[in-house]
């Protein structure tokens, strides 16, 4: 039976890799040879010496198994402490409404279930939270009553943040089980609650029984107050535990072994210490000597039994030794972050290959983190410059700003600052696949071009992307007037590259240099304002504010009033295409060569104001038509002719004409519905297209065209179909004479016969004869 148990245990062993397996085999071979020699020597030694050796072996086994139990409890303490440091169990628990914040409540319950399943000895995990309404979490959320609340409140008053305690298995019962209590928050001296990990009593007893290697014996654990907290007794003698407890009180050492005699049986007693977080426990294991010395019963079996025992012992020691040898390697694996042990074990990979692979991975991650750090520094520098030019750092002193920039890696000693801005124009005229919606893509591309060229020419710079097809740059350069030439060279290279790649034109504005960091926002404002001095032609331009003569002179502008009137007339007629054809010559006449952009902008705004006046005059509010957009702001951002034309036709005139057409269609539909109702009421009268047109207040041509558009057929065809349908009903369902039927539907008799035969294919009399016969047959069948 013992061999079967050993075989079953052997089947559960798992190798942790080829190194673990090979070391085990080698140690087993080395250990088995002394075992065999020992078996032969035992044959020549006295029984007493063998007995002493067996007791020593027994004591060694107890110590090993005690260590295992100690490790189990240590792991449980470590695991609980680890979970107690979770942010979820922090100070935020004070302010959580667990009824309303049900998601947080669910997450806490889920975390407790995860902790409960993290160790085999854990039976359940409770979370107690002190408050006006004390709460106990286990598998669900509970509000404690006064009786239960007192029990947990007294636990909090112990003054310990983590300790072992005996808790009732069920409320109202005296049966208790061990529980590990950890105050939360873990770092607080004044905990608001506790994490209570209750031990499974049955599993703890099963673990405790491993300290008695034989079927008969007793094992128990004492706390630091010498009270029994866990006990297992298979001697069927209830007083044996008390005898052992009394005997332990006489022992002066914290660990060791001795023998006692009880009920004519000799027992070997082994004891030692378990060091817990809040106290020391003492374990006591008692095993009958008869079980220990059983191999000596028959001398004839001595060699065989001892040889087998030596082999088994060699196997056990080899296993433990190989584990010991492997332990540092396993720690190294864990320190390298390798947790998926089962995965590489199934693949049969060698442990040192895994270590090498993990070191390579860590090296790659280190390089990746280093590159990310460089990217982050670049982003921080860009963010700082953006905040600076937007005025968010105005309250900082010059010295503070200089220190910050130097900390970010800039060299500022003997340096000056110059701002540049490139403005892209001609997006609407670009032959590439760019549209007006690709402004961000075009700006991004231009910023990359500018950054690549700046890398070649400048040591220190920063690129800033704006949102209106413009890109800014801050260049940090030596205090030298000759550097101005390099700035112009850079502007020329940017212009040529953008022309070739994006097929767009560039206006480069260069600010005056400054050696003050607090002046940087102002020089950027100057370049943004200075670009309005560009000539309103779609051409490349460089504006150097240091050399530019700021003239307040505004050129004489000729405003094309005649074309403006034609534009308004085309809008009234709903001719969108004609509006586009008129706006083009309007802009050509407005923008003479050499006129600055700042001067012609007012003329474009005037045209939009006139169109807006027409929109208001039609009864439509611009705010509703344009969905609250600031049209003046949009217009101010457009800087090339083609985009201005598209903006007027697609964003302003187009929606307005669509709104007008929609309103006209609704009115037209109402008119046609009125005419159709008139026809259906007066089809027997002398009704005509002209009379209906007079009644609805329009001309016959317009009514006929609208009638065909709305109804789908001509006016006269609709009237004829209605009259014929009414005549067919009278022919089938009545015996009225055909002459009278013709008059009742608005026809003379002779004309009625012709029109009826033309529409139906047979005369009225024949139609009545055929259909009335079928009608009577149908009536009889229904009867």
Automatic annotation (TrEMBL):
Transmembrane intervals: 24-46, 298-320
Record Pfam families: HTH_18
Keywords in alphabetical order: DNA-binding, Membrane, Transcription, Transcription regulation, Transmembrane, Transmembrane helix
Highest taxon listed in the record's lineage: Bacteria
Domain HTH araC/xylS-type: start-end pairs: 673-770
InterPro entries reported for this sequence: Homeodomain-like_sf, HTH_AraC, HTH_AraC-typ_CS
SMART domains linked to this entry: HTH_ARAC
Entry protein name: AraC family transcriptional regulator
């Amino acid at each position: 039976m013992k061999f079967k148990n050993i075989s079953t245990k052997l089947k559960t062993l798992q190798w942790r890799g080829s190194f673990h397996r090979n070391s085990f085999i080698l140690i087993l071979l080395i250990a088995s040879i002394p075992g065999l020699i020992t078996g032969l020597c035992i044959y020549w030694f006295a029984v007493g010496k063998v007995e002493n050796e067996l007791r020593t072996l027994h004591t060694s086994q107890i110590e090993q198994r005690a260590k295992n139990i100690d490790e189990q409890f240590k792991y449980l303490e470590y695991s609980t402490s680890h979970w107690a440091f979770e942010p979820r169990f922090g100070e935020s628990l004070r302010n959580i409404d667990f009824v309303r914040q049900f998601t947080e409540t669910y997450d806490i319950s889920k975390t407790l279930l995860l902790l409960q399943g993290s160790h085999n000895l854990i039976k359940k995990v409770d979370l107690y939270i002190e408050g006006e309404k004390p709460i106990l979490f286990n598998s669900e959320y509970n509000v404690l009553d006064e009786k239960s609340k007192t029990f947990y409140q007294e636990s909090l008053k112990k003054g310990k943040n983590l300790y072992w305690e005996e808790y009732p298995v069920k409320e109202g019962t005296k049966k208790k089980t061990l529980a590990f209590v950890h105050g939360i928050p873990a770092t607080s001296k004044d905990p608001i609650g506790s994490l209570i990990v209750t031990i499974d009593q049955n599993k703890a007893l099963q673990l405790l029984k491993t300290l008695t290697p034989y079927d008969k014996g007793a094992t128990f654990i004492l706390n630091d107050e010498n009270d029994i907290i866990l006990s297992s007794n298979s001697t069927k003698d209830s007083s044996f535990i008390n005898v052992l407890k009394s005997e332990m009180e006489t022992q002066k050492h914290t660990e060791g072994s001795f023998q006692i005699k009880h009920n004519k049986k000799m027992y070997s007693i082994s004891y030692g210490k378990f060091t817990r977080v809040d106290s020391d426990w003492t374990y006591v294991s008692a095993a009958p000597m008869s079980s220990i010395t059983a191999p000596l019963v028959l001398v004839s079996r001595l060699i065989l039994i001892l040889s087998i025992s030596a082999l088994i012992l060699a196997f056990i020691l080899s296993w433990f030794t190989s584990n010991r040898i492997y332990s540092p390697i396993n720690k190294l694996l864990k320190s390298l972050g390798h947790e998926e042990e089962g995965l590489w074990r199934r693949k049969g990979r060698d442990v040192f290959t895994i270590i090498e692979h993990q070191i390579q991975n860590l090296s790659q991650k280190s390089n990746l983190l280093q590159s990310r750090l460089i990217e982050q520094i670049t982003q921080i520098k860009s963010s700082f410059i953006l905040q600076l030019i937007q005025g968010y750092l105005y309250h900082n002193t010059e010295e503070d700003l200089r220190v910050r920039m130097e900390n970010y890696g800039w060299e500022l000693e003997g340096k000056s600052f110059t701002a540049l801005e490139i403005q892209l124009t001609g997006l609407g005229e670009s032959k590439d696949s760019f549209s007006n919606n690709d402004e961000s893509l075009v700006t991004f591309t231009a910023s990359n071009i500018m950054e690549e060229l700046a890398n070649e020419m400048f040591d220190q710079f920063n690129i800033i992307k704006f949102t209106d097809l413009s890109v800014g740059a801050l260049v940090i350069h030596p205090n030298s007037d000759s550097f101005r030439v390099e700035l112009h060279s850079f502007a020329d290279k940017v212009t040529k590259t953008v022309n070739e790649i994006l097929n767009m034109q560039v206006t480069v504005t260069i600010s005056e240099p400054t050696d003050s960091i607090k002046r940087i926002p102002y020089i950027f404002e100057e370049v943004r304002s200075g670009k309005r001095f560009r000539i309103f032609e779609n051409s490349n331009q460089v504006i150097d504010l240091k050399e530019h003569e700021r003239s307040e002179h505004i050129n004489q502008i000729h405003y094309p009033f005649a074309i403006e009137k034609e534009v308004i007339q085309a809008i009234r007629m709903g001719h969108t295409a004609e509006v586009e054809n008129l706006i083009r010559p309007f802009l050509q006449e407005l923008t003479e060569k050499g006129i600055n952009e700042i001067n012609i902008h007012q003329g474009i705004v005037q045209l939009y104001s006139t169109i807006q006046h027409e929109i208001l005059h039609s009864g439509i509010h611009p705010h509703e038509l344009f969905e609250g957009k600031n049209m003046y702001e949009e217009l101010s951002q457009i800087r090339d002719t083609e985009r201005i034309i598209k903006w007027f036709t697609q964003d302003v005139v187009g929606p307005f004409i669509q709104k007008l057409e929609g309103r006209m269609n609704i009115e037209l539909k109402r008119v046609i519905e009125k005419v159709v109702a008139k026809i259906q009421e007066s089809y027997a009268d002398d009704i005509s297209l002209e009379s209906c047109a007079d009644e609805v207040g329009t001309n016959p041509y317009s009514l006929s065209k609208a009638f065909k558009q709305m109804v789908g057929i001509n006016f006269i065809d609709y009237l004829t179909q209605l009259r014929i349908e009414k005549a067919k009903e009278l022919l089938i369902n009545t015996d009225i004479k055909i002459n009278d039927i013709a008059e009742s539907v608005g026809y003379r008799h002779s004309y009625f016969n012709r029109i009826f035969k033309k529409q139906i294919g047979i005369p009225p009399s024949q139609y009545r004869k055929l259909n009335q016969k079928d009608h009577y047959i149908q009536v009889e069948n229904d009867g």
